[in-house]
Amino acid sequence: MLKTRLIPTLLLNDIGLVKGxxxxxxxxxxxxxxxxxxxxxxxxxxxxxxxxRATRDQREPDYEQIRELAQVCSVPLTVGGGINSLESIxxxxxxxxxKVLINSAAYDSEDFVLNSVKKFGSQCxxxxxxxxxxxxxxxxxxxxxGTKTTSKNPVQWAIRMxxxxxxxxxxxxxxxDGMLAGYDFDxxxxxxxxxxxxxxxxxxxxxxxxxxxAITECGASAVAAASLFHFTEQTPMGAKKFLAENGVxxxx
Length: 252
What we know:
Elements: E1 5-13, E2 16-19, E3 27-30, H1 32-40, E4 47-51, H2 63-72, E5 77-80, H3 86-94, E6 99-102, H4 104-108, H5 110-120, E7 125-133, E8 139-143, E9 148-149, H6 154-163, E10 168-173, H7 185-194, E11 199-202, H8 208-216, E12 222-225, H9 227-231, H10 236-245
Parallel strand pairs: 1-4, 1-12, 4-5, 5-6, 6-7, 7-10, 10-11, 11-12
Antiparallel strand pairs: 1-2, 2-3, 7-8, 8-9
């Protein structure tokens, strides 16, 4: 049985580390390098770093910044934001990242996803699925940091991404982002039930119990959080202790 992973998420834009709030990240909360160094000592399993402005600003990832962060990061590192070519993936991996998180570009070209998997391997490719309910109360995928509708259903999109060979999926409800009010458990369960590849639950975790529910009741293989670790007294080590006490197989 695979061990559950605990993954802090760092959100970046052109001013530094920011707090997410329903995908509106304008509140600066510091610099990314010290945050990475802190998490190195906090018993985390992986880190996800996302440049939330790169795609909307139509710019490439900051490869030098990625290299700087990767050099001090002691756990597997996933990088997302502005990734829309095989060359950008190559540069990110060459800079020291272990995986890439692709979102908007996947909607533009399924061939890009397929070719990414073929060239770099399934284990390197994570697909981000950002969704919210529409006026008909149906889930719908959004791209470009939640600003553009795609008319795609997240469950069907997840199935399609699995068919193309991606290694895992990161699922989040836009309206839960930064709210500390709980994951969208219904969305996480729907996607987890539909695919066999690992699903990372993200956006909105408020406490350790949310991690437990996402794993044991909704089928998530990993849990991610940002605000929970940045703005509360709850810690990755505390989360792991809680999960282990409740029967979840975790990485030590």
